[in-house]
Design brief:
Helix content is about 80%, strand content about 0%. It is mainly α and about 500 residues long.
Length: about 500
């Protein structure tokens, strides 16, 4: 006598495979949206700065700390965040970073004073520094071969497009609601990401390993960088020759030297300092500081000029950045073709020289200027050049790295981008505030001076590219051995 088999509650192998494929399909979108949220909170705030300054009664270079407090902590802890993802678990760190970022976003939206906003933004930076490397680590472990290349390409595209999307989002939200909405909007997005990540991100199979995190190194690097940035931002009020400025500057540099020595003498360093001796890596890192500082400064100064001097609204200002985003995209697309034939030395020297021309054009902005004649030409020239420079400098750092150090060198690349941007904002905002006015036609003078200094920085970087980077023949040999190298922010 035959009996019909009872209905089983177990899933068949086919069901499990389908479920895995479905979750795998949603994995990359979830991680990319998380990274986009992190990137948006830099440029979106740029557009809202004048409104934030009026609401919280900020003045002078103090305004820049709205961005600096975020990018400083984000950049200086990226290497630590990558190590934490490896030792404590990728999904654990992704969820933890998302939680910290979300809570800090709520605190930023509720801030009633400048100090509260700066502290909350620093908390966002901490969350981003934990979340972003964990997301990138999940991508590199979940995808292989051509699928990994496509996933990393999408990751890089989000980093580039995020800046443009950010100014538009910031403009729309600030124009039609309130600057606090920029932070409130993170809450529902983060809630969806948290739910989705628990469904699609692979669970951690190993227990957390706390040894090897290098908390001392992370604290030393962060404190040293913070001292340097603080010294620069306060130099206008305290004086460039004051004891405070010298103590912060010299103390910060000494701290970074101590960090380098410390990292050379521990078993599992955050950064293998000896790798900076490679001309492509070390030279690329120096030039990354220059290109990121120039880009962040360009966004900040254009936003201040359009809103504070010409009196434009947030939405119109956001739309005014579209040509800059398009020109930078054209430059980024062209860079790969140029590099494959000429290496990175020539293209970087040339792109910085062209960027200097764009910044010089922008330095002529006047109290009663025009967007079409005083801003747009310089914006387009600088945008194309900086698009080429950003991709070129990233490829200089990433090309030729060994497989086992890909994560560390990618983290160094991202760190250079964020720290360069932080220093750029600190320097250019301090110069822009030098005229003593940040609102009205009289603010144009300081903004013009800041653009002129940016032109000098780009000119110096052009010369440094020729001196620091390897010749095309040497670089192209390394590129041929590592054709998958690409910029990852």
């Amino acid at each position: 006598m035959h009996h019909k088999p009872k209905h089983s509650t177990h899933h068949s192998p086919a069901d499990s495979t389908d479920a895995h494929a479905k979750s795998h399909r949603w994995l990359l979108p979830v991680l990319l949206v998380a990274q986009l949220m992190v990137i948006l909170d830099i440029t979106a705030v740029n557009i809202a700065l004048p409104h934030i300054a009026m609401d919280l009664k900020m003045s002078g270079s103090t305004i820049s700390w709205t961005i600096t407090s975020y990018s400083l902590i984000f950049g200086s802890l990226l290497l630590f965040g990558g190590r934490a993802a490896d030792l404590l678990g990728r999904r654990r760190m992704f969820v933890t970073g998302l939680g910290v970022f979300t809570a800090s976003s709520f605190a930023s939206a509720m801030a009633g004073s400048a100090a509260m906003l700066f502290a909350s933004r620093a908390g966002q930076g901490l969350g981003a520094a934990i979340l972003s490397p964990a997301a990138l680590s999940i991508i590199t472990s979940a995808y292989q071969g051509s699928r990994r290349a496509k996933a990393l390409s999408a990751w890089g595209a989000v980093g580039g497009a995020g800046a443009a999307v950010g100014v538009l989002v910031g403009g729309v939200l600030t124009q039609f609601t309130d600057w606090r909405t920029i932070f409130y909007v993170n809450l529902p997005v983060a809630a969806v990401l948290l739910f989705a990540s628990l469904k699609v991100v692979p669970a951690d199979t190993q227990k957390p390993r706390w040894r090897g995190l290098d908390l001392a190194g992370a604290a030393l690097a962060t404190t040293s960088l913070a001292a340097i940035v603080y010294g620069i931002t306060q130099a206008h009020s305290a004086g460039w020759t004051s004891i405070q400025t010298h103590v912060c500057g010299i103390g910060g540099l000494a701290g970074l030297a101590a960090f380098a020595i410390y990292e050379l003498h521990i078993d599992k360093p955050l950064l293998r300092v000896e790798r900076i001796a490679d001309r492509a890596v070390g030279g690329g890192l120096v030039l990354m500081l220059a290109v990121a500082g120039t880009i962040f400064g360009l966004f900040l100064l254009c936003s201040l000029y359009l809103q504070n001097v010409l009196g434009w609204g947030p939405l119109t200002t956001g739309l005014a950045f579209v040509p800059l985003a398009l020109s930078a995209g054209i430059g980024s697309h062209a860079a790969a073709h140029v590099i494959s034939k000429h290496g990175v030395r020539g293209p970087l020297a040339g792109s910085f020289a062209v960027a200097a021309v764009g910044m010089f054009l922008l330095s002529r902005v006047g109290a009663h200027g025009s967007y079409l004649t005083d801003v747009l030409p310089g914006m387009l020239v600088a945008g194309v050049a900086l698009g080429v420079a950003t991709v070129s400098v990233s490829m200089a750092i990433l090309t030729g790295t060994r497989q086992e150090e890909n994560g560390m060198i990618s983290g160094l690349n991202s760190t250079g981008h964020e720290i360069g941007g932080t220093l750029g904002i600190a320097i250019f905002s301090t110069i822009a505030a030098g005229s003593g006015a940040i609102l009205g036609p009289q603010a144009a003078s300081g903004i013009g001076d800041a653009f002129l200094v940016a032109a000098l920085v780009a000119s110096l970087a052009s010369v440094m590219a020729l001196a620091l980077l390897p010749r095309a023949q040497h670089f192209l040999t390394k590129l041929a051995l590592n054709p998958q190298a690409m910029p990852v922010h």
